[in-house]
């Protein structure tokens, strides 16, 4: 059901002639679960998002590293959105050129964000196709959901090429959920009935959260972001807390929903995120960002990124359980989205992404296979969360690798300095048992950074308690809630929030975390690696990162 790859257009004359193609390496294949419902009519309304070239991106990165490095005099000196805006906003020339180009096509209905580095414009399909030569907009349908996307790569005229990073709303289909799985008892654990499921009280016991470890600070908050047509139901949260809540103080409702929270059935992912961030980050005000923007031509994840650049007051911690294969996205897009992560980090916002549920992943390339890193998990400017299971599934014990835990090395992003020593130590220590080097690039950003239990969660969805829910979608809000609790204690002491955690996390060298040293994760089922990716080891590893939080100890070392 795949379309022919048309991105190879770039190579037509024997060399790279991508002059007009901002995203020459973007996968334009239609995912198999979307059906082409035909070309849209000329008058059909589209909304495209133009990512304008920013200024001072290197300086932004330098600032981010300084405000996030506990040994820097600038540690914790976060910037306001206005300050970020004056640093990165596009030059006047960029604005003039891009605006002039749009106006010359009769496109005037445009909106921007506070940082002025995105323009979102409404136009007809005819105008869009004339503006972006090569594009041909179709309607695609999947599961009662419809989007407008181009079936072929777009180009832009030479004079605007230098002033844009990419155009959103043309290619990328809505992100897929990091396959949250619901095992049937027989498939995974034979003595199902006796198995210990993960609940708030089990998590709080394992991670040493006492009943008094709850949020107290007045202006603290945390958030989860959703990008599917998924809703959580307030009644589910109430039932969940009464079934599994135990004895800690917690909120009974979400504080704020940003976006449209419809009335449909609750989604498993949405219920899980809300129920678990509110269990570790107990008594902390919680926001839900849900499928921001509902125009059929929008990219939901990109809409969320725009929102972050358009809101001055945001929660300090965000957890996001979505991701896509790096190889399906253009380098221009991933690079720009990573810059957006820097913009958030420099403001003191912690972004946590699930590491994925396919271990090292597998990409089939002709006769060869390779591991398949996932983005945004592979961005150097976010904290990526892997997954673990209890060693003895019938008791609260030490943790081992959950074989699904996403991890590995980016093929796009270079290894950041903050992790070089930890990763190189791992590579040296386990050198003799590493998978063949042709499967991954050891010079890339390695992930995950941290982890938590990801196996056998209880979730209440549509008023029904559901067991056996697994995935790094579960571990991510659990870690997020604990970081929000640490922020809470920092705020009470008058300290700045943690912000982008990685530089500080890697300096801790595992202090305050339970090291996970057992087990390997999944990868290609071929003769060379036989389904085995990387293996956990003492200290940092690309399966469970530094390990899982021992809350009181982690709090102690992060409280100055
Ligand atoms: C950004 O916020 C302003 C003010 O609330 C609003 O008018 C504008 O539409 C927003 N921009 C986008 C792209 O949504
Ligand atoms: C989704 O379902 C509703 C009601 O069943 C229907 O009105 C709507 O057209 C459907 N949308 C798509 C894109 O199929
Ligand atoms: C955490 O819990 C474990 C197991 O209950 C216990 O041994 C330990 O003393 C607790 N506290 C800390 C700070 O590790
Ligand atoms: C819960 O949070 C509120 C502030 O939002 C605080 O006043 C209250 O004391 C907290 N509850 C507990 C048990 O700490
Ligand atoms: C994220 C959040 O809740 N921020 C609030 C902090 O307090 C200020 C002033 O009281 C509010 O305006 C923010 O919305």
Automatic annotation (TrEMBL):
It is found in: Lysosome. Residues 1-19 form the signal peptide. CDD domains: Peptidases_S53, Pro-peptidase_S53. Residues 197-560 form the Peptidase S53 domain. PROSITE patterns: SEDOLISIN. Keywords: Autocatalytic cleavage, Calcium, Disulfide bond, Glycoprotein, Hydrolase, Lysosome, Metal-binding, Protease, Serine protease, Signal, Zymogen. It holds the Pfam family Peptidase_S8. The active site is at 269 (charge relay system), 273 (charge relay system), 473 (charge relay system). InterPro entries: Peptidase_S8/S53_dom, Peptidase_S8/S53_dom_sf, S53_propep, Sedolisin_dom, Tripeptidyl-peptidase_I. The keyword Protease applies. Its EC number is 3.4.14.9. It is an enzyme of class 3 (hydrolase). Its cofactor is Ca(2+). One of its GO terms (molecular function) is serine-type endopeptidase activity. SUPFAM superfamilies: Protease propeptides/inhibitors (SSF54897), Subtilisin-like (SSF52743). One of its GO terms (biological process) is central nervous system development. PANTHER family: PROTEASE S8 TRIPEPTIDYL PEPTIDASE I CLN2, TRIPEPTIDYL-PEPTIDASE 1. Lysosomal serine protease with tripeptidyl-peptidase I activity. May act as a non-specific lysosomal peptidase which generates tripeptides from the breakdown products produced by lysosomal proteinases. Requires substrates with an unsubstituted N-terminus. This is Tripeptidyl-peptidase 1. It comes from Neogobius melanostomus.
């Amino acid at each position: 059901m795949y379309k022919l790859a048309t991105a190879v257009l770039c190579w037509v004359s024997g060399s790279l002639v991508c002059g007009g193609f901002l995203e020459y390496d973007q996968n334009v294949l239609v995912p198999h679960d979307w059906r082409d419902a035909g070309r849209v009519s000329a008058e059909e309304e589209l909304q495209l998002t133009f990512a304008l070239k920013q200024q001072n991106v290197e300086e932004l990165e330098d600032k981010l590293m300084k405000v996030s490095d506990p040994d820097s005099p600038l540690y914790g000196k976060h910037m306001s959105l206005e300050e970020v805006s004056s640093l990165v906003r596009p030059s006047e020339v960029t604005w003039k050129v891009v605006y002039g180009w749009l106006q010359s096509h009769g496109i005037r209905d445009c909106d921007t964000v506070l940082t002025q580095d995105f323009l979102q414009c409404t136009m007809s399909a005819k105008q869009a196709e004339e503006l972006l030569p090569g594009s041909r907009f179709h309607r695609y349908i999947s599961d009662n959901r419809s989007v407008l996307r181009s079936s072929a790569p777009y180009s832009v005229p030479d004079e605007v090429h230098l002033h844009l990073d990419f155009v959103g709303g043309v290619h990328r289909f809505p992100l897929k959920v990091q396959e949250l799985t619901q095992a049937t008892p027989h498939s995974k654990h034979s003595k199902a009935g006796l198995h210990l499921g993960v609940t708030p009280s089990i998590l709080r016991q394992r991670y040493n959260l006492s009943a008094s470890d709850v949020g107290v600070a007045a202006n603290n908050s945390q958030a989860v972001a959703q990008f599917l047509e998924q809703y959580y139901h307030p009644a589910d949260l109430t039932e969940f807390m009464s079934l599994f809540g135990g004895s800690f103080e917690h909120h009974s409702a979400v504080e704020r929903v940003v976006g449209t929270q419809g009335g449909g059935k609750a989604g498993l992912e949405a219920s899980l995120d809300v129920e678990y961030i509110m269990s570790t980050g107990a008594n902390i005000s919680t926001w839900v960002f849900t499928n921001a923007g509902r125009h059929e031509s929008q990219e939901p994840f990109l809409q969320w990124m725009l929102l972050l650049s358009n809101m001055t007051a945001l929660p300090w911690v965000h957890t996001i359980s979505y991701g896509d294969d790096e190889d399906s996205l253009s380098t221009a897009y991933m690079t720009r989205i990573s810059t957006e992560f820097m913009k958030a980090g420099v403001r003191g916002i912690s972004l946590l992404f699930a590491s994925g549920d396919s271990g090292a992943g597998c990409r089939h390339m002709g006769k060869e296979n390779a591991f398949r890193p996932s983005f945004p998990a592979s961005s150097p400017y976010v904290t990526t969360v892997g997954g673990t299971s209890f060693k003895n599934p019938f008791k609260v014990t030490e943790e081992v690798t959950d074989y699904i835990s996403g991890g590995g090395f980016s093929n796009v992003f270079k290894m950041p300095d903050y992790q070089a020593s930890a990763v190189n130590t791992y590579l040296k220590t386990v050198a003799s048992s590493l998978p063949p080097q042709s499967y991954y690039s050891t010079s890339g950003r390695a992930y995950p950074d941290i982890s938590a239990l990801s196996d056998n969660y209880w979730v209440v969805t549509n008023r029904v308690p559901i067991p056996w829910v697994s995935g790094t979608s579960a571990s991510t809000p659990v870690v997020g809630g604990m970081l929000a609790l640490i922020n809470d204690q920092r705020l009470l002491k008058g300290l700045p929030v943690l912000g982008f955690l990685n530089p500080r996390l890697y300096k801790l060298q595992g202090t305050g975390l339970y090291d996970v040293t057992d087990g390997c994760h999944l990868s290609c089922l071929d003769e060379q690696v036989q389904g085995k990716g990387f293996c956990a080891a003492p200290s940092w590893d690309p399966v469970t990162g530094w390990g899982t939080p021992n809350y009181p100890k982690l709090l102690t070392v992060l409280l100055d």
